[in-house]
Write a structure and sequence with these properties.
It is a single chain. The protein has 109 residues and is α+β, with helices and mostly antiparallel strands. It contains two helices and three strands. It has one domain. The protein has a three-stranded antiparallel sheet, with no helix packed on it. Helix 1 (53-68) packs antiparallel against helix 2.
Length: 109
């Protein structure tokens, strides 16, 4: 679905790995995390410098849950929430697996 006025640009680093980028549209601008943070629990761990997909999904979940608590609650919102919860769970599972393998925060696969 194309949105009027929506713009996105996604960057690669010199090795061809996903890096930062920007997504913007009416009422929002997202500056994406640029570069890995470093392995969890190591001294070289960096502070985030941009948004993560998981955080943006959580923001959308919060907004639709807000609608569901109002007179605008509906089945379409409930279905969207179900799929967003599944997306959030899948990404959380991926992160936990990467932490278990001690590759979280790196470009290691």
């Amino acid at each position: 679905m194309a949105l009027y006025g929506f713009y996105e640009e996604h960057w690669l680093d010199n090795a061809g790995n996903p890096a930062g980028g920007v997504s913007t549209g009416r009422g929002f601008t997202i500056s994406w995390q640029n570069g890995p943070l470093g392995k969890v629990g190591t001294p070289e761990r960096h502070q985030p410098n941009g948004a993560f997909v998981e955080d943006v999904i959580q923001a959308v979940i919060g907004r639709i849950e807000f609608y569901q608590e109002s007179r605008f609650h509906c089945e379409a919102n409930a279905l969207a929430l179900k799929d967003l919860y599944l997306a959030a769970e899948a990404l959380d599972s991926r992160t936990k697996d990467r932490e278990r393998r001690v590759v979280e925060g790196t470009h290691e696969v």
